[in-house]
Amino acid sequence: MRTSTQLTALALVAALTTGVGAADLRGRVVDSSTGEGLPAVTVVLPGGTPVTTDADGRFTATGIAPGRPRVDLYRIGYAPRLQVPLYVTEAGGAALIHLSPQPVVFEELVVSATRARALQGQTIAQKRLDETGPRDVGEFLRTVPGLGAVRRGGSALDLVYRGFRSEQLDVQIDGGAHVYGACPNRMDPTTSHVQSEDLEKIEVLSGPHALRFGPAFGGLVNLSMTRPPQLGEFGVETSLETGYESNGEGRRARLSATGGDRSYDFYLGAGTKDYGNYEDGDGRQVLSSSEVWDYSIKAGYRPATGERVQVSLRQSYVRDALYPSLPMDLDVDDTTILGLDYARPLGLGRLDRLTAKVYASAVDHVMSNERKPSRATMRAETTVDNRTAGGRVEVGATVLGGRAFAGADYRDLTMDGSRVRQKGDMMMHDIIWPEAGHRQIGLFAQLERPVGTTALSVGARLDRVSTSADNPEPSFVALSGTELDRTDVNASATAGVVRHFGPDVEARVFLGTARRSPTITERYLYLLPVGLDRYDYLGNPGLDPETNLQLDVGLRLHTARLDLSVSGYAARLGQYIAARVDSTVTPRSPNVLGVRRYTNISRARLLGLEASGAVALGPGLRASLDLAYARGQDLDLDEPLPEIPAASAALALRQTSASGRYWLEVSERLAASQDRVAAEYAETETSSYRVLSLSGALRLGAHLELRGALDNALDAAYSDHLNRRQTSTGERIGEPGRSVRIRLVART
């Protein structure tokens, strides 16, 4: 494996110092109605490499083999065009491509300024998701620089971004909708309620800078579901997929259809996944099986030019998911997400756009110890119901030579759940969620203004957050020693600048501050083992909101052959919410060491660095490298914060045929050992690892494609630092060993 890493690294170095290349691919993207060049259009080249058009709509890429490659084009406010054939010659003639305007409903999250995108983050296009075909969205996202994920079982990995976790990281669906997991141990985070096949893109925005879209504390992840195309004439496209994975004997199938005409459009996706227990690199079985069925529907109607209303419905049904690190497994998880979006031009002077969204989500969750060894002495079953409703309204305007946005949003979460334990003839009833509520109403404003080659961005928001517990355990009331209901007023602000130094170099600096109110778990949880150590955790209604003051800086170099970006961040956290041992409280759960009560600590710090690079090595041949490093420190205890991902790197070498008929990729993922661990939580060190994988696809005809992958080709035995420990052995859950994945996709 050392040899493969060295070869890939040498290829990258050689590409930076030589002029290897082939024909140029040049083009210009214009508005189909006005003929004007369109800036900020993302052009996804063969092999999945994106380039961006300049202020006149032009783009250039080298290292493209002569022939007729196909590209995908995306721009907010315009209908995407997929698999557009272009002709590439040695002379490098330019191609003219038209995009048709498409009204934007609010589910589109990232907004582009005239010359530079005035937000700090990255977008993962549908093409990459489609090629990867991950079992789980969280499992896929931990391959993105800066993102990690906590593994508690075979799926439903829980995101960690730059050391921010749980509700410090805001995960949304379609730019504003929320669905909250019901399990206190987070066996069902937001990402587990959607499937990657239904996603059009994933947007990852860093720091407390996306305040227009919510009180982003440490970052925001938007899971944008596939949106129906808007067609001039009636048409329907369908896709059917089936697949198999050897490790765990996983089976999957999915059907989707899109269609419409000038006035109506629709999207329908439905599928199933059935996975058994997998084996790690040492051949040990990991209890990780699960079954899921789901479907998604979106339907849009355009009553007038520029006006659009859309209704969306998604439901998923998870059964019998095993979690070897938790005291219970999941029996039933039924999720419903309903949304209504509306957008229209205003035509009121400088006020030119109105967008609105309302949504509701429900999670019905049942878990038990039916398959656990503990069932021999005590039977336990927990039933939880979560309900979330919310909405937002926003007005866009042209102000001070830029774009301004102002509006309000609202979110109302209710959590209710109980547990029944039976030991012999004795029955015990426990309150898990005490009919708890978390209500938040916010006002926000943001201004993005281009000034020559610079884009300025300023934003602010004010949130009123109230939490309550209507049915608490009497023992919890006695322990809390304070009023259970709390109301916080949180102010947040951000300012940033993006500067272009010529056509190829971009620099950005953002400074933001935000306040986050404690969650229902942090304020009202009553003696449950939800941490990474063997302690019961106890909520604290008296917690204060935690604060984040964060600086983000970035530099990007983008040429026809090379795309290189580097970003760094430093966050100073105040009133940071941690958990400290409270020896005055008796634990409730068996086999735990004591009780930890949530509390505010005065100071903590997070900082890190990320880098990404891609380079054209020759006709259809590209190499890429991603690096990420994060460091967290509890300044009160003067020791590392827990659950900080290890430094990591990902290398890939990819060959795409000139015709686009096939592509092949060899990749290696590396993680350093993590010896910066939190002694306070008995966190232990993890060893470094390397994982080599192969993947590719072959078009078998105009409508049929075969995709395959060999994951963990050398059957490495390893465990990620964020993996939780198995309750049976006390060892971290091992990652899957060697596995062959095959998928067959048919499209019409």
- What portion of residues is helical? under 10%
In what range is the share of β-strand residues? over 45%
CATH homologous superfamily of the largest domain - what is it?
TonB-dependent receptor, beta-barrel domain
Largest sheet: 22 strands, antiparallel, barrel
Distance between the termini: 41 Å
Supply the CATH architecture of the largest domain.
Beta Barrel
Low-confidence stretches: 1-21, 109-118
For the record, the count of structural domains works out to 2
**What is the CATH topology classification name of the largest domain?**
Maltoporin, Chain A
Please, how many helices?
A: 5
Write up this protein:
The structure is a single chain. The protein has 748 residues and is mainly β. It folds into 2 domains: 2-99, Sandwich (Immunoglobulin-like), CATH 2.60.40; 121-747, Beta Barrel (Maltoporin, Chain A). Helix content is 5%, strand content 56%. The protein has 5 helices and 41 strands. The protein has a 22-stranded antiparallel beta barrel. The chain has a 4-stranded antiparallel sheet with strand order 3-2-5-6, with no helix packed on it. Strands 8-13-14-12 form a 4-stranded mixed sheet. A hairpin with a 4-residue loop joins strand 39 and strand 40 (704-711). The longest helix is centred in the N-terminal third of the chain and has 16 residues, at 2-17. It starts with a helix and ends with a strand.
